[in-house]
Design goal:
With about 500 residues, the protein is of the alpha/beta class. It is about 35% helix and about 25% strand.
């Protein structure tokens, strides 16, 4: 008769090499029924490689696995799914031109009488979306959803699989506090039914809330294992990076009294926000906080000219921008680092150099209007050096870690010597080491006299980086707090009004 331990997942001595890179070195991992095990580590630590091996995406070079007390060696993801193991990728793999229910049941459509049973697919999808706190039509096209809602659709797919082991890779990266709690409630309900989880996250404050144990990888090796999740965040950070972290957020320098960005009475064409006014001085960092759906992303996209407005003005250094015109904004020195770097920030199949060049065609072309490759390479090398991007300038952006991709997005805009920089979710899905580097960049921009606006779903990030914090709720300005009065309690009180 199998023991409880045998009925879970056991990984022993698993290693994996990709060319000259040893991605995993003899990894051991146990996941028992009804248990949530946190798998932590910086980008490149081996978390995704181990997750992919367990999920059958590719095989290991050495080692063995057992599942339910039986040998387990999936040759493909279908083998893992048939065994009851599912991986929910951090990078969303949805089909934008299909409905939510079609995405949820893609590859396993429900049939009735030889025909597609859309009614039942819609019913089951609506049920699981409701459990996640997303009450929208299952027939809505996925391409019309914001990033947070798309992430919930990915999670809904997992919940309909009836898997007994779910590997969740950054499941809350795009979610706000309310959506995260809905997900945690589902995890708690499923673990009570014996469902197990491997939980990969860079949000270390979540670990104590949802996990039972913690395993930490560094450079492809298991470096720490904690029998409880009640581990101080500082200790987990030190496990992950191999050194002491004295301060995550750099010290801020005082801003000037000169206004760089002024927004007056801005109202969205789609009604997502209304009558927003704000100013940001040179050298100031303004944080924008609020729960998902508050209109934060819609606001900064409108300020940058990416979305249309019904009324209101945006002024940079006294120059009023043409509404809904990104070229006008960029020409005035206002740039936006978008929330979805893979879809909107970088062209994944292009090199680092070409990505930098896209935002700086006027600088990389010769007098006749042709692109000068030598100039592209030179500007890209300088941009990468400034942003400490780890990679060759001829390397495809797809091959970079999330942190380095984000650095490329920031680097290409900094080449334009902007006066105002807006960053929407600047550290989403990025490990703690890369976060610290990006925080240094953000504070460094302000120290140079650039006006900075930061939108983040992570309240600690907004509070740690900002001179002032604007709180949005349901598309309206609920108040602006100075750094001395901006606490998590004060911000959430305004956000929940």
């Amino acid at each position: 008769m199998s023991t409880t331990h045998e009925r879970g997942l056991s990984v022993r001595g698993v290693s994996k090499r990709f060319g000259a890179t040893q991605a995993l070195h003899s990894i051991d991992l146990d996941v028992r029924p009804g248990e949530v095990v946190a798998l932590l580590g910086e980008n490149g630590a081996g978390k995704s490689t181990l997750s992919n091996i367990i999920a059958g995406v590719f095989g290991s070079d050495t080692g063995r696995m057992t599942w339910d007390g039986q040998e387990y060696a999936p040759a493909a993801p279908r083998d893992a799914l048939d065994a009851g193991i599912a991986l929910i990728h951090q990078e969303m793999r949805l089909l934008p031109d299909l409905s939510i229910s079609e995405n949820v049941f893609v590859g396993r459509q429900l049939m009735k009488g030889g025909r597609l049973d859309r009614k039942e697919m819609d019913r089951r999808t609506a049920e699981v979306l409701h459990r996640l706190g997303l009450d929208i039509s299952p027939r809505r096209l996925v391409g019309s959803l914001r990033v947070a809602a798309q992430q919930q659709v990915e999670i809904a797919k997992a919940l309909t699989l009836n898997a007994r082991l779910l590997i969740l890779d950054e499941p809350t990266a795009a979610l706000g506090a309310e959506e995260t709690e809905h997900l945690f409630a589902q995890v708690d309900a499923l673990r009570a039914q014996g469902v197990s989880f491997v939980y990969v996250s860079h949000r270390l404050e979540e670990i104590a809330r949802i996990c039972d144990r913690v395993v930490v990888l560094r450079d492809g090796q298991g470096v720490a294992s904690h029998d409880t999740a009640q581990v101080p965040v500082r200790r987990l950070v030190e496990d992950m990076v191999g050194r002491s972290i004295e301060s995550v957020f750099p010290d801020l320098t005082p801003p000037t009294s000169e206004v760089a960005l002024q927004v007056d009475g801005l109202t969205a064409a789609d009604g997502s926000f209304r009558d927003i006014s704000l100013t940001v001085n040179r050298g100031e960092i303004l944080g924008i906080a609020g729960i998902v759906g508050a209109g934060r992303t819609e606001l900064v996209r409108a300020i940058a000219g990416a979305d249309p407005v019904a009324r209101g003005t945006v002024t940079v250094d006294g120059r009023t921008l043409r509404p809904g015109d990104t070229r006008s904004a960029i020409a005035a020195g206002l740039v936006l680092v978008p929330e979805d770097r893979k879809a909107q920030g970088v062209v994944l199949d292009m090199s680092i150099a070409d990505n930098v060049a896209l935002a700086n065609l006027d600088s990389v072309s010769d007098g006749a209007g042709f692109i000068a490759p030598a100039r592209v390479a030179r500007i890209a090398r300088e941009a990468c050096r400034t942003m400490t991007v780890k990679g060759r300038v001829d390397q495809p952006a797809r091959t970079l870690s999330g942190g380095n991709q984000q650095k490329v997005v920031i680097a290409k805009w900094l080449e334009r010597k902007p006066r105002v920089v807006i960053l929407d979710e600047p550290t989403r899905g990025i490990d703690v080491g890369a976060r610290a580097a990006i925080y240094d960049v953000i504070v460094g921009l302000a120290a140079q006299g650039i006006a900075v606006v930061v939108v983040s779903s992570e309240l600690e990030e907004v509070l740690g980086l900002s001179h002032r914090v604007m709180v949005l709720a349901r598309g309206t300005d609920r108040g602006v707090l100075d750094r001395t009065e901006a606490t998590d309690v004060a911000v959430m009180h305004l956000a929940a009004v």
